[in-house]
């Protein structure tokens, strides 16, 4: 791993060691009864203190000292299994993207065939070369699979395969190959191209990107209000000089209301009328930026606002001079930067109530990211 002096299972992957991520999947699995972690003899204390104890795993039954080779290490694990064990699931500690579905699928296939492995069809053409790097053969890619873990076996079958290999002094790179040496079939079941084995520094970077990916949610909002005399025209929290203002229970800021609805919609929290009904005297004449601040507070624990795109539809007055101030006010309330808030203005080309100067409307789209 180049500059990384820490062994791969104990490297930090976002918030915890790689091995802790991996064990966590098996610990939560409904088809796993007990977990034995095969560990280098000099790593017992590190594994306990960094991986096992901090995360309160319920199914870790013990740490088992490894051997000189992977094959020896697995056999050490087989020797400590309870006598009533029917199936053994073997998994690389540095494959943290394993899923319960993969475990379940492999177990089901092993119940039918005795041995099953997660694998994926290879995407690239494979070349066989000689000792000097020259191509000597190109196998048919359609029959090639890249084998992963989990690999699941009947316990008695796997022990027999290991003992056969010991008698024949065979050393192979995975347990499926040992079973194949017995002349038995191993079933390949579809794994995942995302079931990454962290082996190189580049793998760790990719794993961080995969694990930090967030769910994005999008909401839309719309509001419309009539224009009338003796009212202030307020849009995006900015008061705009004009002989008419928007009529409503609050300050009737259609732009801010549309953004409120878009945020609530993206979070699946209903609409502005549900949270701030116009039948409640507490909201009479209220500054809509206050309402936007409350909407922001409703989602703050679960979502971050990535961006807002909005449009005011109004025949008069010209709004372009006021848009920078709108963007800044809205961004301040939402706790984001000004370049994350976009405000546009257009007319309805003289059509309808808006075109006749009797009303104004606003539309907004908001993108939220789920906080992990």
Automatic annotation (TrEMBL):
Determine if Translocase is one of this entry's keywords.
Answer: no
Q: Which InterPro entries match?
A: IspD, IspD/F, IspD/TarI, ISPD_synthase_CS, MECDP_synthase, MECDP_synthase_CS, MECDP_synthase_sf, Nucleotide-diphossugar_trans
GO BP annotations, alphabetical order: terpenoid biosynthetic process
User: Where does the record place the 2-C-methyl-D-erythritol 2,4-cyclodiphosphate synthase domain?
Assistant: 216-368
EC numbers on record: 2.7.7.60, 4.6.1.12
Keywords carried by this UniProt record:
Isoprene biosynthesis, Lyase, Metal-binding, Multifunctional enzyme, Nucleotidyltransferase, Transferase
The similarity comment for this entry is: Belongs to the IspD/TarI cytidylyltransferase family. IspD subfamily.
Record lineage: Eukaryota, Metazoa, Porifera, Demospongiae, Heteroscleromorpha
Task: Please name the Pfam families in this protein's record.
Answer: IspD (PF01128), YgbB (PF02542)
Q: Which cofactor does it need?
A: a divalent metal cation
What organism is listed for this UniProt entry? Geodia barretti
Q: Which PANTHER family match?
A: 2-C-METHYL-D-ERYTHRITOL 2,4-CYCLODIPHOSPHATE SYNTHASE, CHLOROPLASTIC
Pathway of action: Isoprenoid biosynthesis; isopentenyl diphosphate biosynthesis via DXP pathway; isopentenyl diphosphate from 1-deoxy-D-xylulose 5-phosphate: step 4/6; Isoprenoid biosynthesis; isopentenyl diphosphate biosynthesis via DXP pathway; isopentenyl diphosphate from 1-deoxy-D-xylulose 5-phosphate: step 2/6
Its catalytic activity? 4-CDP-2-C-methyl-D-erythritol 2-phosphate = 2-C-methyl-D-erythritol 2,4-cyclic diphosphate + CMP
For this protein, the record's HAMAP family field holds: IspD (MF_00108), IspDF (MF_01520), IspF (MF_00107)
Q: What is this protein called?
A: 2-C-methyl-D-erythritol 4-phosphate cytidylyltransferase, chloroplastic
Q: Which GO terms describe its molecular function?
A: 2-C-methyl-D-erythritol 2,4-cyclodiphosphate synthase activity; 2-C-methyl-D-erythritol 4-phosphate cytidylyltransferase activity; metal ion binding
């Amino acid at each position: 791993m180049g500059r990384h002096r820490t062994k791969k299972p104990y490297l930090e992957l976002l918030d915890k060691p790689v091995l802790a991520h991996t064990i966590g999947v098996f610990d939560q699995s409904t088809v796993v009864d007990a977990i034995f972690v095969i560990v280098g003899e000099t790593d017992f204390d590190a594994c306990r203190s960094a991986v096992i104890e901090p995360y309160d795993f319920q199914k870790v039954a013990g740490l088992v000292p490894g051997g000189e080779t992977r094959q020896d290490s697995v056999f050490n694990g087989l020797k400590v299994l309870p006598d009533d064990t029917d199936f053994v699931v073997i998994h690389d500690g540095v494959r943290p993207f394993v899923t319960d579905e993969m475990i379940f699928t492999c177990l089901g296939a092993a119940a039918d065939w005795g041995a099953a492995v997660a694998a994926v069809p290879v995407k690239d053409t494979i070349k066989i070369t000689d000792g000097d790097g020259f191509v000597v053969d190109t196998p048919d890619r359609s029959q090639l699979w890249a084998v992963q873990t989990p690999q699941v076996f009947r316990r008695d079958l796997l022990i027999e395969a290991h003992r056969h290999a010991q008698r024949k002094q065979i050393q192979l790179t995975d347990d499926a190959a040992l079973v194949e040496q017995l002349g038995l079939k191993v079933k390949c079941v579809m794994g995942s191209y995302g079931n990454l084995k962290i082996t190189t520094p580049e793998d760790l970077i990719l794993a961080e990107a995969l694990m930090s990916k967030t769910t994005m949610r999008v909401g839309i909002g719309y509001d419309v209000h009539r224009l009338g005399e003796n009212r202030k025209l307020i849009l995006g929290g900015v008061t705009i000089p004009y002989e008419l203002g928007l009529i409503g229970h609050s300050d009737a800021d259609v732009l801010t209301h549309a953004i409120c609805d878009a945020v609530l919609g993206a979070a699946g929290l209903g609409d502005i009328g549900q949270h701030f009904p116009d039948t409640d005297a507490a909201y009479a004449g209220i500054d809509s930026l206050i309402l936007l601040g409350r909407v922001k507070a409703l989602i703050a624990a679960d979502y971050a606002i990535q961006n807002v795109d909005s449009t005011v539809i109004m025949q008069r007055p010209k709004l372009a001079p006021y848009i920078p101030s709108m963007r800044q006010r809205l961004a301040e309330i939402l706790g984001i930067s000004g370049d994350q808030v976009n405000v546009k203005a257009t007319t309805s080309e003289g059509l309808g109530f808006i075109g006749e100067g009797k009303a104004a409307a606003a539309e907004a789209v908001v993108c939220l990211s789920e906080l992990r």
